[in-house]
Amino acid sequence: MTRRLVDDPPQITVATTGIGFRGWMEAAEGWGLAEELRDTLGSTRMLARGPKAKGAIRAAELREEWSPASASSAEVLDHLLAEGVEGVRIAVQLHGATTEWEPVPDFCEVLRMAGADVVPVPVYRWVPPDDRTPMDRLIEGIVTAGLDCVTFTSAPAVASLLMRAKETGLLEAVLHAFRTRVLPACVGPITAAPLEELGVTTSMPGRARLGALARHVAEELPRRANRIQAAGHNLSVRGGCVVVDGQVRQLAPAPMALMRSLARQPGRVVSREDLLAALPGGGDDTHAVETAIARLRAGLGTPKAIQTVVKRGYRLALDPAERIDNPHPEPAGPAGRQPSPAHSAGLGARREMPSRGFGGRPVPEVPPAGAAPRRPGSPSAVNGAARPAMAPTVAGNGVARPVSAAEAQPNGAVRQPGGAVRQPGGAVRQPDSAVRQPGGMVRQPKGAVRQSFPARSFGPAGSAGPARGVW
């Protein structure tokens, strides 16, 4: 083919790839045709598809006439068709192969249909590797999210990966991983085209250069890292390791798989069955989960970051500021029972319920200590009926007499001989007469009043002490 071009030079030469054009010139050097080929190409109009092809042309001491800003074969084709190619002899250095994953139509065939005399120059071709094991490991790492990012430098490389994934039945799993957890970074839009056609959003640098791609990945991955505050430590979950307080912790596949499962919903409980399904190799023995959790805690160096939830599973022990609301909260008590307001309000809260005396009859609440005393004519503590106010008196030897200041008790209560206390409205509490029932209920004798405010009780010797507020 090179001899044919030297003998019958083309009018236009299209260089599609840098590696292909350099390989062509090196092969011509071995055949002893390097000088003749360089002179022949120098007499033609040279078009370079992209910056790499342009660099290869200039490295051969030649000069391109035009190169598209998009580095796209489609734009080169449009440029040629716009100026007319009927009867024009065009040499096209091929880029290797056209596959089902590359959306660009056959470059040479379109030119032929437009009337051009096309001379294809197949410098190299893409073939599957003899050893598929590295490719299969790469696909497994993508599917299991063992990788944070995969870089692509050419469209044929993308096509090769997709073809192998299709052969192994993992194409949809690979595409799902690229759409969610694994970043596909491409050197430029041409490389990204096969993935974009399949609905995968790719990431690429502003300039189609390998150095720019490396810088782009170094800047992009830290922004995508999953950062978690757990047990007072900063955790950043990566594809194959966990960064703990800035220190990289390499983990074996089994504990790393569990860490990814726990970090997928930080703070949520993950059952042993779900963690077992996430382990490499599967199995049906949940003891494997316990072993992997122990290895995970040891590998992190922060055992408290992984919390055991008895009879349920495991979760990341998020710091309070990092906790997230659970849209589907688990009931705190028995099945079907809602948590009490005291649990909802936090420690120190109490449940507001109507007070009931002996026999289950409602008893109105008594004002707290320090509140204004009940006014004359107001409802009494029994059945809410109004009765006249009674002046405080104390009975001694069956004779009533006015109460002295020393005998007057808070809230209008009057101490009786033997420790009995007369309440406003006539209710009397007798010492040792109340019986506490299981569960905290208090049974009072008939006619007694149950009150719910802090008060003071008096023992037989007249000593005062704090009471629980139930009389």
UniProtKB/TrEMBL annotation:
GO terms, molecular function: DNA binding; uroporphyrinogen-III synthase activity
Superkingdom of origin organism: Bacteria
InterPro entries: 4pyrrol_syn_uPrphyn_synt_sf (IPR036108), 4pyrrol_synth_uPrphyn_synth (IPR003754), OmpR/PhoB-type_DNA-bd (IPR001867), Sig_transdc_resp-reg_C-effctor (IPR016032), UROS/Hem4 (IPR039793), WH-like_DNA-bd_sf (IPR036388)
Domain OmpR/PhoB-type: 225-318
PROSITE patterns for the chain: OMPR_PHOB (PS51755)
One Gene Ontology biological process: porphyrin-containing compound biosynthetic process
Gene3D superfamilies tied to this protein: 3.40.50.10090, Winged helix-like DNA-binding domain superfamily/Winged helix DNA-binding domain
Keyword DNA-binding in annotation: yes
SUPFAM superfamilies named among the record's database cross-references: C-terminal effector domain of the bipartite response regulators, HemD-like
Disordered: annotated segments: 322-386, 401-471
Record's keyword terms, sorted: DNA-binding
Protein name, UniProt field: Transcriptional regulator
Native species: Nocardia seriolae
Bias kind Low complexity: ranges: 368-382
DNA-binding region: 225-318
